[in-house]
Amino acid sequence: MSNDKKPAAAAATDAPVSNFLRAIIDNDQAAGTYQRDGMPSVITRFPPEPNGYLHIGHAKSICLNFGLARDYAGRCHLRFDDTNPEKEDQEYVDSIMDSVKWLGFDWAQPASNGGGNHLYFASDYFDRFYAIAEYLIESGHAYVDSQSAEDMAANRGDFSKPGVNSPFRDRAPAESLDLFRRMKAGEFKDGEHIVRAKIDMASPNMNMRDPAIYRIRHAHHHRTGDAWCIYPMYDYAHPLEDAIENISHSICTLEFQDHRPFYDWIIEHAAQGGFVQRPVPRQYEFARLNLTYVVTSKRKLRKLVEDNIVSGWDDPRMPTIVGIRRRGYTPESIQAFCERIGVTRSDGWIDYSTLEGCLREDLDPKAPRATAVLRPLKLIIDNFPEGENIQCTAPVHPHHPERGNREFTIGKELWIEQEDFMEEPVKGYFRLFPGNKVRLRYGYVVECTGCDKDENGNVIAVHCNYFADSKSGTEGSANYKVKGNIHWVNAADAIEAEVRLYDRLFTDANPDAGGKDFMTLLNPASLETIRAFVEPGVANVAADTRLQFERHGYFVADRVDSVLGKPVFNRITTLKDSFGK
Ligand code: ATP
Ligand code: MG
Q1: Nearest to residue 259, comparing CAs of 234, 287, 290, 232?
Q2: Ligand 1 center–CA 314 separation, angstroms
């Protein structure tokens, strides 16, 4: 994905496709909206809550936010939105940082771009959030409400019914302030009091009906420990985090559209109080990624892990970044995917095959080729000299001769795919059947003579004779015209390897849409583990090595279980699109 070495002319044709967000930023650039001393005019952020692992939907947001910052010579902050003490954990923080870096992005900026390590934690702003809340109370823009949770819910009204003011709404600011300080000091139990912004209980937008901004939670926080027993609400903290960090364009998913008026309200009041600088950030919403055959809600992903449906967050069937990575996807293919699907303001489903297509486009020119026989059947060349193994060569990559050759041998007994033999061929079948000739790829032409069967009639070995002057790469090979061309490995030097064939995790394209229970739509055949035979050269591939097993697809040496000499391969995807068929 790196464009940096390309000449200017090529870069122009690679220019990012425009979208509504780029149009907004272009306008702001032209108007000088965010021209500020010592700061780039485009500052975005990616603000995950550290309560789970990142998934492919987050990748869209990461590519978008970091991508815009890169393209406009700005910067993107990685900010942990860790204002909710209960569900957060250092394990998630570490994994999220690792995933963002793996995707190819960095919050730390080079000196040429102003420098700075733009990694932030919302919990570092707890003092400021608190000071701003005191200011709002003192200036009459917030109050402590002491209604029970039930009364508060009832008095909030609904879409057709305006809310009712709390009996505590007009309590004196001094009284609210006193209560707020005592909330902070730990004098009250969870839920006894709450701080609310004073806006409009009759607003048609429910989010403006005196939203809660602070609540009591006697809970331990993964970073601030027991320093606080009151915590800010997300809708209060998030806009302030953006404003404190001088974010220019705050990009989020569509469900936050109705929260935008409060986003603007809170920032405007904080700016009036001198707590944050102008120009203030603006929020823009885009449609979240929905991918067919995939669920991305953290809660649902956690259920798959906890119920042992998958082996963990990094199971290669999981749509988490750690899972996709272990499956063998490249960061380049995910960036290309996010670029291709673009950003819009209307919800829709993206076909999973789009992601696989990006993977194939990325790996086809890169991945070295190799041979694997996944469903082995013995092929015996009856006229081949006993005990002899003859050297064969094949290109590492068919379009890159400079990458050299791979070497392996052919002998009397080979492994071929079961499906490459049919005792009674169907119409149009050109592979092995008695009387037919095929080329053993990079080896010889052979003619099938028959097969051996066990007592149940199952084929256990195929027999053939070879033509000694037909070896690939020799002159004589041109004299043989055959329609079938099959792959094989020599039983004498093949390596046995575990191969994991993955399929989609769900049988339904939209497993959690329309109230469906995704847990009832699991694909029982989403993982098949087989013993395969691979060519000797791949015995010592390093974990994470990606290659193409000819005719089968793209595979990766599993980053957890594969060891030198004893490789374990995950199928990333087949060569052709078979998804959903
Ligand atoms: P989930 O719904 O999976 O729990 P979340 O929105 O609660 O996700 P956060 O950690 O709050 O997870 O998300 C961080 C950022 O990623 C947010 O800006 C959010 O809008 C964005 N994001 C989350 N899911 C998607 C998605 N499917 N497509 C695009 N962006 C997403
Ligand atoms: Mg969220």
Answers
A1: 234
A2: 18
CA dihedral 246, 249, 250, 256 (to 10 degrees): 140
Phi/psi-derived region of residue 202, left when phi > 0, alpha when psi is between -120 and 50, beta in every other case: alpha
Catalytic-labelled residue, pool 22, 101, 156, 288: 288
Reply yes or no on whether 298 is catalytic: yes
Sign of CA dihedral 13, 340, 47, 560: negative
* Ligand 1 atom 10: residue of nearest CA: 48
Ligand 1 closest atom vs CA 251: 18
Q: What does DSSP say about strands 376-381 and 413-417: parallel, antiparallel, or unpaired?
A: antiparallel
- Whether residue 47 has its Cβ less than 6 Å from ligand 1: yes
* Span from the CA of 59 to the centroid of ligand 1 (angstroms): 9
Tokens 């985090």, residue located: 241
Q: Per residue in 191-242, pLDDT tens?
A: 999 999 999 999 999 999 999 999 999 999 999 999 999 999 999 999 999 9
How many angstroms separate the alpha carbon of residue 47 from the centre of ligand 2? 9
Rounded to a whole number of angstroms, the CA Rg of the chain reads 31
407 is catalytic: no
pLDDT tens figures, 42-87: 999 999 999 999 999 999 999 999 999 999 999 999 999 999 987 7
Q: Whose CA is nearest to atom 6 of ligand 1?
A: 48
CA distances 541 to 125, 132, 374, 442, 490, Å, are 47, 57, 18, 22, 19
| Encoded amino acid at 172, one letter | A
Check residue 576 and give its pLDDT.
86
Q: Starting from the edge strand earliest in sequence, which strands make up the sheet with 119-121, in order?
A: 43-46, 75-80, 119-121
C-alpha count within 13 angstroms, C-beta hemisphere, residue 231: 22
